[in-house]
């Protein structure tokens, strides 16, 4: 029997482009600690390259500390983890946050099929080896959660445990054939919303160039419009992401994001500037290509030993106001519950962007879980 502890509701292209982005980050104080007159975490910016891939990553904490590796999702950078990295580095962890394939200072392949789980997990395995290869705590948000859970399932020796945020583990891959059957049809009647909240995902697969062009039309406004706080009034109602196809795109007939001011409570202004700079350099094509490889990802998922069952401790952090991914009151979390032998599920009152929207609370629940599972660093 699985040891599942439900705690819902508790607080528990090129090298020159990479160089330009990193210089820009330094210019706005991201890596120098000179942002807004306040001392910033002393993040170090590093590059690791192999013959197949280059990864830019941020690092903080004692060099001899146990590894905690943070994987971001769409459309983010390693910088989304600034608050968590600073906190856990102070606890004695060696914290590392890469820019994932297609993002920031890392490689941005042109081919759509370069963005499969298998390629991305190989990136992370090579980075892990470069960092010493000792079993790590893998922390993932959004697509980063997908990669963290898949990596632990395929290569369990690399992990002491995993923290999955906002997107649960799907042993058969986070892919339309897996997730659409789990849609809550009380909110999304099949005749009106055949793909439920995943309509936006389907739109990528059918209109990829148009979807990317709409996001690229005004990259700063697109990013500002995406990163918004949760709205309690949205709970139990269809998400706007369920209506992308009928609108003809995320932004409808305008085909560009409306002018939108970034929410300073989420991204620190200097970090948001760096995010915009990275997307201005490379655009949304690479990040959106992650949605385009369902068949390959399902085939790879089915290669995991023991049917993808995870034996290491897993913490899942749900966003109660996340209209797309919440597992509260529906069946979206069922595959994860069945596949994880030692699972703790907790919840925060926030939407999808919990590493930004609930910075301190997320740190608290991860710390509590690490203590519960005796995973604290010796120095803590």
Write a structural description.
Mean pLDDT is 91; it is low at 9-16 and 26-38. 35% of the residues lie in helices and 16% in strands. The chain is globular and about 55 Å long. With 380 residues, it is α/β, with parallel strands linked by helices.
Output the keywords.
single chain; 380 residues; alpha/beta; Rossmann fold; 9-stranded mixed sheet; 15 helices; globular
State the separation between the terminal residues, measured CA to CA: 32 Å
- Tally of contiguous helical segments: 15
The ordered string of helix (H) and strand (E) elements is EHEEEHEHEHEHHHHHHHHEHEHH
CATH class of one domain: Alpha Beta
| Overall residue-averaged pLDDT value | 91
State the low-pLDDT regions, or none: 9-16, 26-38
- Strand element count: 9
| Largest pleated sheet | 9 strands, mixed
- Helix content estimate: 25-40%
**In CATH terms, what is the fold-level topology of one domain?**
Rossmann fold
The CATH superfamily of one domain is Alpha/Beta hydrolase fold, catalytic domain
| Apparent shape | globular
What is the architecture of one domain at the second tier of CATH? Answer: 3-Layer(aba) Sandwich
Neighbour order of strands in the largest sheet? 1-9-8-7-6-4-5-3-2
Classification by helices and strands: alpha/beta
Strand percentage: 15-25%
Please summarize what this structure is.
It is built from 15 helices and 9 strands.
List the helices and strands and how they pair.
Blueprint: E1 3-7, H1 15-27, E2 44-49, E3 54-60, E4 67-71, H2 82-90, E5 94-98, H3 117-130, E6 136-141, H4 143-154, E7 159-165, H5 176-179, H6 199-206, H7 208-216, H8 219-226, H9 244-247, H10 269-282, H11 285-289, H12 294-301, E8 310-319, H13 334-339, E9 340-348, H14 354-357, H15 359-372
Parallel strand pairs: 1-9, 4-5, 4-6, 6-7, 7-8, 8-9
Antiparallel strand pairs: 2-3, 3-5
């Amino acid at each position: 029997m699985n040891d599942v502890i439900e705690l819902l509701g508790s607080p528990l292209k090129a090298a020159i482009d990479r160089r330009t982005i990193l210089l820009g980050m330094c210019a706005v104080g991201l890596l120098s600690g000179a942002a807004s007159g306040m001392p910033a975490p002393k993040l170090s910016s590093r590059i690791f390259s192999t013959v197949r891939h280059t990864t830019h990553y941020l690092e903080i904490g004692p060099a001899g500390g146990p590894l905690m590796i943070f994987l971001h999702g769409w459309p983010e950078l390693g910088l989304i983890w600034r608050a968590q990295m600073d906190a856990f580095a102070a606890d004695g962890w060696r914290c590392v946050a890469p820019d994932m394939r297609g993002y920031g200072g890392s490689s941005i392949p042109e081919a759509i099929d370069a963005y499969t789980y298998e390629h991305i997990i190989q990136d992370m395995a090579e980075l892990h080896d470069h960092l010493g290869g000792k079993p790590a705590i893998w922390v993932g948000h959004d697509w980063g959660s997908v990669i963290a859970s898949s990596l632990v399932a395929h290569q369990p020796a690399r992990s002491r445990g995993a923290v999955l945020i906002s997107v649960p583990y799907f042993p058969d891959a986070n892919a339309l054939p897996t997730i659409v059957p789990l849609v809550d049809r009380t909110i999304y009647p099949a005749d009106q919303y055949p793909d439920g909240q995943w309509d936006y995902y389907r739109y990528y697969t059918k209109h990829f160039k148009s979807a990317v062009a709409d996001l690229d039309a005004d990259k700063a406004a697109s990013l500002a419009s995406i990163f918004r706080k949760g709205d309690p009034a949205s709970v139990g109602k269809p998400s706007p992401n369920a209506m992308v196809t009928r609108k003809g795109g995320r932004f409808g007939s305008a085909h560009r994001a409306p002018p939108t001011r970034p929410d300073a409570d989420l991204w620190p202004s200097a970090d948001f500037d760096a995010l915009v700079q990275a997307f201005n350099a490379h655009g949304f094509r690479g990040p959106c290509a992650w949605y385009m490889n369902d068949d390959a990802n399902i085939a790879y998922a089915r290669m995991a030993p023991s049917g993808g069952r995870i034996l290491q401790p897993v913490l899942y952090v749900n966003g109660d106001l996340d209209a797309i991914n919440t597992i509260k009151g529906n069946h979206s979390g069922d595959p994860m519950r069945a596949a994880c032998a030692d699972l703790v599920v907790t919840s925060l009152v926030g939407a999808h962007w919990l590493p930004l929207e609930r910075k301190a609370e997320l740190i608290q629940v991860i710390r509590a879980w690490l203590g519960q599972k005796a995973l604290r660093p010796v120095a803590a």
